[in-house]
Design a protein that fits this description.
The protein is α+β, with helices and mostly antiparallel strands. Helix content is 55%, strand content 10%. The chain has a 5-stranded mixed β-sheet. The chain has a two-stranded antiparallel ribbon with strand order 1-2. The chain has a two-stranded antiparallel sheet with strand order 3-4.
């Protein structure tokens, strides 16, 4: 037994050799002295940790000691203790694997990416933009970006096929591609009209008739215009101005370019609506006579090629008075085109294209009865971009809400705001002398929804937008929005100062 103990002590504690030999000789075993704490690294860590507490320099010494003794957990704990005293210590952050971005440190790349994502989402919400592949983009631009289109030097979206033609030297003039051999005519200021190259003045005359109208395009619109080139290009800018607010209203962008027709005089507008041009009668429900813009609900020629029905307006540039209404009517027509693209009537249109309808009246009933969006909202959105939107083009010192205030004054001068139920019922037509006022009032309803800052109403608008995105229960969501407006009529009147 003594020999076993002696051997064990000799192996376990060589430094106690003499003590063990003496004990073996005498037969008396004295208590063995305790081991040096340094022989237990974790115990030594706890001791050093207490001594270094609250002192960055000592904590760095502790970290180095932990690192030397392979105490990984304790090393990281020490680095975190350093950061509690010195939050910006770059060396401690780097040793912990943290990532720096714009002066702030994040626990990992994953945490940084999560922060960036939330930051982008917040910025998108504040600016009305959307996040696409880590970048903020205009919602109206998203369909083109997703298709791989690019913007040319003028800021216009160009599809992949067009990019190829441009690279080959072709030049686009409206819808026509001009081969390289003829491209020099464009540089001379000439326009291809039929098989002839004409000056701008001659081209304006050529395109002033419906049969030869200008066809001016961009990725969002196809504008059919009998106005001068100058007015037509201004009209396209007004289309874009309307588009931005229509995205705000509907929360969804059309899948294809929107057709819009703009005619050069009220007389031509009337003849077009009555079918007295080479174009077929464009409306089954005669609303052109109650406003300066209408929805061409029966213009089958536009849908036969896979397109959508256009809104129609006139822009008379012959006098200041007439000129002031042209942009407004044009924007209303855009609103009608936009709504039709999102909320079409495929069953009625199928019958129209086959010629399978009993009468214009029955077709109109079927066409408008097939809609999911109520007419007050559809016409209200068009009236909003016509007259209630904030005019961002007003120069310093001007009034960006001038047409909005003028429109509300018109309501006041015509007996004040109608009962909301009457507005939402929206019974317009040539036999209702109140039709123009109802369109104006519907615009005011949408203005309150969009700009009135009423949380409950905005929530219902959000629900309608979601319904439109999924194309489910749109009518139900629109009805809920109307009911919420009625609950907040006092806020509506305060918003409009009625």
């Amino acid at each position: 037994m003594h020999a076993l103990i002696f051997t064990t002590l000799l192996i376990a504690a060589p430094n106690l050799r003499e003590q063990a030999l003496e004990a073996s000789r005498s037969g008396v075993f004295a208590p063995v002295a305790a081991q040096d704490p340094a022989a237990d690294p974790k115990a030594e860590y706890e001791k050093r940790k207490k001594e270094a507490e609250g002192n960055v320099e000592r904590l760095w010494s502790l970290y180095e000691w932990c690192d030397k003794n392979a105490l990984k957990t304790e090393s990281r704990s020490t680095l975190r203790a350093i950061l509690k005293l010195d939050a910006g210590n770059a060396q401690a952050h780097k040793l912990l694997g943290h990532v720096e971005f714009e002066g702030n440190w994040y626990d990992s790349e994953k945490k940084l990416e999560e922060f960036k994502r939330k930051q982008l989402e917040a910025e998108a919400k504040a600016t009305g933009k959307v996040v696409y592949k880590g970048a903020l983009v205009d919602p109206a631009d998203l369909p083109f970006i997703q298709k791989g289109w690019t913007k040319d030097a003028a800021g216009k979206w160009v599809d992949l096929e067009s990019q190829k033609k441009i690279a080959e030297g072709w030049v686009r003039q409206d819808l026509s591609w001009i081969p390289p051999a003829e491209a020099g005519n464009i540089a001379k200021g000439l326009w291809k009209c039929g098989d002839k190259w004409l000056s701008l003045e001659e081209a304006n005359e050529y395109h002033s008739e419906v049969e030869n109208w200008w066809t001016i395009t961009n990725p969002r619109f196809v504008l059919y215009s009998t106005c001068t080139r100058k007015v037509s290009e201004q009209a396209l800018l007004e289309c874009e101005r309307a588009f931005k607010d229509l995205v705000r209203i509907y929360g969804k962008t059309p899948a294809q370019a929107l057709p819009v027709v703009v005619l050069n005089t009220r007389d031509q507008y009337g003849r077009f609506a009555r079918g007295e041009t080479d174009i077929q009668t464009p409306e089954a429900r005669p609303l052109s006579s109650i406003h300066g813009a209408f929805m061409a609900d029966a213009l089958a020629a536009f849908t036969s090629a896979g397109g959508t029905l256009p809104g129609v307006a006139y822009w008379d540039d012959s006098s200041d008075k007439e000129r002031s209404f042209g942009p407004m009517y044009l924007r209303h027509a855009v609103g009608q085109s936009y709504a039709e693209a999102l909320d079409p009537s495929p069953k009625a249109l199928a019958k129209l294209l086959k010629g399978d309808m009993d009468s214009a009246n029955s077709y109109a009933d079927n066409f408008w009865g097939e809609k999911q969006l109520p007419e007050w909202f559809r016409f209200g959105a068009a009236a909003y971009v016509e007259r209630y939107q904030v005019n961002s083009l007003v120069k310093a010192g001007g009034n960006p809400n001038e047409t909005r205030e003028w429109s509300v004054t018109n309501i006041t001068n015509k007996g004040g705001l109608d009962p909301l139920d009457k507005i939402f019922k929206f019974e317009i037509g040539v036999d209702n002398q109140n039709s123009g006022k109802l369109i104006n009032e519907a615009g005011l309803m949408v203005a309150f929804v969009l700009d009135g800052k009423c949380a409950e109403v905005l929530a219902k608008l959000g629900a309608l937008k979601e319904a439109l995105k999924t194309n489910k229960e749109v009518s139900k969501a629109a009805l809920a929005l109307a009911e919420e407006i009625k609950k907040n009529e006092a806020k509506l009147r305060q918003f409009a100062q009625l």
